Amino acid sequence: MRQTKLFTKTRKEAPADEVSKNAELLIRGGFIHKEMAGIYDYLPLGLRIIKKIENIIREEMNKIGGQEIFMSSLQERETWEPTNQWDDKEVDVWFKTKLKNDTELGLAITHEAPITKMFKGFLNSYRDLPSSVYQFQTKFRNEIRAKSGIIRTREFVMKDLYSFAKDEKEHLEFYGKVTEAYKNIFKRTGIGHLTYLTFASGGMFSKFSHEFQTITSAGEDTIYVDEDKGIAINKEVYNDEVIKNLGLSKEKLVENKSVEVGNIFTLGTRFSDALDLSYQTEDGERKPVFMGSYGIGPGRLMGTVVEALSDDKGIIWPEAIAPFALHLLSLGEDEEVQKYADELYEDLQKKNIEVLFDDRKEISAGEKFADADLLGMPLRGVVSARSLKENGIEIKARTEEKGKIISKEELINLLKPSH
Amino acid sequence: MRQTKLFTKTRKEAPADEVSKNAELLIRGGFIHKEMAGIYDYLPLGLRIIKKIENIIREEMNKIGGQEIFMSSLQERETWEPTNQWDDKEVDVWFKTKLKNDTELGLAITHEAPITKMFKGFLNSYRDLPSSVYQFQTKFRNEIRAKSGIIRTREFVMKDLYSFAKDEKEHLEFYGKVTEAYKNIFKRTGIGHLTYLTFASGGMFSKFSHEFQTITSAGEDTIYVDEDKGIAINKEVYNDEVIKNLGLSKEKLVENKSVEVGNIFTLGTRFSDALDLSYQTEDGERKPVFMGSYGIGPGRLMGTVVEALSDDKGIIWPEAIAPFALHLLSLGEDEEVQKYADELYEDLQKKNIEVLFDDRKEISAGEKFADADLLGMPLRGVVSARSLKENGIEIKARTEEKGKIISKEELINLLKPSH
Q1: Which residue intervals define the domain Aminoacyl-transfer RNA synthetases class-II family profile in the entry (chains A, B) (predicted)?
Q2: In angstroms, how far is CA B114 from the centroid of its own chain?
Q3: Do the beta carbons of residue A42 and residue A32 sit within 8 Å?
Q4: For residue B178, what are the CA distances in angstroms to B62, B64, B114, B175?
Q5: Which helix (H) or strand (E) element contains residue B208?
Q6: Which of A7, A30, A155 sits opposite B73 (nearest CB)?
Q7: Does the CA dihedral B228-B234-B238-B244 come out positive or negative?
């Protein structure tokens, strides 16, 4: 992509009312646009990151047998009343609206109830189990405050996976697979080393749950980490009994601020009992289906990457989710430089290598460098009169201080085609 | 995909309250699930079709320079008031809701206003023009009636493209490119031969517009088609003057029922005037940006394909959007048959050929054939004791009456890998 064609521009300042680092950097870089408090649009650079995160999640969900679907946002009262979740006094984050005939509708806060109801039409026998479905679909949450940028918003896409099993044993087998899949996802998106499987309270649906928490000072949560064992305890359930039950010792646990980047819930039969989702066993009995639910928000993950990995110059995207593998800069008005950079860009395009090409003229080298640091592609390549003297491109990793000059052929070998 | 793993099942009957053919067939096939009147979920088979349609649209939008974004559904009053579209008396399909502090919000019916507002932050000079952006994002419309299945729903994903130009001339150049891109899209999705560029009234934003209308008896619109010239006039603007202006003759125009599968609007400066989106010309003047908007609903397109191309046995998917290229059926309990079909399926999987494998046992040949007709994959391949006698697979196109037996190698050569 040529920066002269990209409709977004970097800016020096974020909106004055923006207090989170992730939104500030992402708005300045033109990755997102603030529609209003707690509600953001994804612009071309930002959407490329979201899609890469989604594709990684999708691959991992497919690998464990998840089948992708896409459910509606609009929800009816009958779906949520059986679990006592329609009442605003019970669930206080609903956005409600109305049909023309005054029927009240809600905007899905999550999809446990409708998926349970839908499965009644498809699930009948033990032969239909185990089964799991997932989607990437918008959730709406009427939060009172929104001050964490894209980490906590009033409208966001979530990957939600739901599992159906014969009993707790079959459920736990799948639950274990999801745990591994989630670990893969956080590793692949570049925050594996900062992310811990965390013991937490059950939230909406069950007594206990597991979360994945990523350490960053911007986090709203507090966790106690056992680095060696690679697990943590959320402050909300942190007490002597839990520490003992988990075989941990208080002395080794270190307090950290963190962001919840994923959660996995055992729902048990709460929804299947209330909504009457049962199956016939081999013996001809009817039994309620044993369920689980598992969430990751790609936007929240993206925001967490920014919080956890940026430096004072800007963002540092991990390779697997960076919008482009290379940020190519041409410096100066020199015609030879322009021509060389232009041809290099076209060559890389032909090889399906993802390049953002800063082909802007009348922009100083300093400004281009500052923008490259702000935008945070893993690798920067500079074509200048100086680099051409040495017959090459000066490349520098975003995380390194110093660059080096390499030939065009070496650069091409360094970069992987996107498909 | 093995049908024994697919969580959906075909069914004999659609819900009693379902009056449209498209929803009836799609529900019976397990492509979609009815959440409530006018609101549907997409199940694995249906979502595969939507994604193929979206990818075709995306390719065509990228080809003409569109940049993909993703905007929020929640909208604030200030965005829509300048064009007088917030008032329910002016636009009567809003779903409205409220923040906790009682601020009224709306669910996007479309995105002209917010995109114009957003572009104020990025567009300043004639150098920034022309520009165009698009998204696949949910629209909400509080329709009074919903009886056309997935063709007209209260919640649907739309591909909406917005263009920004210096003046009408530059706008019309891009408008022409979109017209061609839309023709490509309808051709590639298999309804090109039934779809006409149609002269229509302007709807929400401008005096006149162009629609793409697909002929089917289920259509809510009436158009007058000149088959030779490949264009049509919508009944709403059908009069002697318009016929004359278009250089058509009344005698050659044939009345047809049709579905609007796409529309392209010249917005002019309506939004840029109201929301103050201007640019600086080469001469240093400020001028309002000249805009256009262009929509296609992938779900509506899918529903229209069903209406236009199905027969009395079921759906007939065009190759490019079919969920699977091949529906492989194994018939009978014969172990040799099972083994042959199983190995064939695994071989095809390895070659990235998209196969739905009806590996169900205890299901009669008749039921399998009926399901294959209902589900409508372009090609059916049957492995049976009879086909194995001739050392092959009996293949039959969905649109043909009779099949023929070919070898495994011939079958593999016939099918294209999906990537």
Answers
A1: 38-318
A2: 24
A3: yes
A4: 11, 7, 21, 5
A5: strand B208-215
A6: A155
A7: negative
Model confidence pLDDT, tens digit, residues A109-166: 999 999 999 999 999 999 999 999 999 999 999 999 888 999 999 999 999 999 999 9
Q: Other CB atoms closer than 10 Å to residue A119's CB: what's the count?
A: 24
What is the arithmetic mean of pLDDT over A398-417?
94
Q: Residue A88 burial by CB count (10 A; 0-12/13-18/19+): exposed, middle or buried?
A: exposed
Predicted complex ipTM = 0.96
Kindly list the residues from chain A whose CB atom is less than 8 angstroms away from the CB atom of residue B41. Answer: 69-72, 114, 118
Both tokens of B68, joined, read: 């993909």
Taking the C-alpha atoms of residue A161 and residue A141, their distance in angstroms, rounded to an integer, is 18
* Predicted confidence (pLDDT) per residue in A356-393, tens digit: 999 999 899 999 999 999 999 999 999 999 999 999 99
pLDDT of residue A352: 95
Q: Note the maximum CA span of chain A.
A: 82
Kindly list the residues from chain B whose CB atom is less than 8 angstroms away from the CB atom of residue A359: none
The values of phi and psi at residue B46, to 5°, are -70, -40
pLDDT of residue A206: 55
Number of cross-chain residue pairs from A and B with Cβ atoms under 8 Å apart: 128
pLDDT digits (tens, 9 = 90+) for A257-284: 999 999 999 999 999 999 999 999 999 9
Residue B124 identity (one-letter amino acid): N
H and E: helices and strands count for chain B: 12, 21
Structure tokens at A20: 């989170």
pLDDT at B245: 87
H-type helices in B246-363, by residue range?
Answer: 270-275, 298-309, 335-350
Q: What is the mean pLDDT of chain B?
A: 95
* Yes or no, beta carbons of B100 and A142 under 8 Å apart: yes
Domains in chain B, CATH or no CATH each: 21-218+258-309 (3.30.930.10), 324-414 (3.40.50.800)
C-alpha–C-alpha distance, residues A167 and B337, integer Å? 34
Write out the two tokens for A115. Answer: 């998926």
Are A76 and B36 in contact (CB < 8 Å)?
Answer: yes
Say if strands A379-383 and A326-330 run parallel, antiparallel, or are unpaired.
Answer: parallel
Distance from CA of A72 to the nearest CA of B (A): 6
Out of B74, B75, B100, name the one closest to residue A144 (CB): B100
Give the residue from A72, A150, A157 with the most B CB atoms within 10 Å of its CB, the best one to mutate.
Answer: A72
**Strand duo B326-330 + B355-358: pairing:** parallel
Handedness of CA A324, A329, A335, A340 (dihedral sign): negative
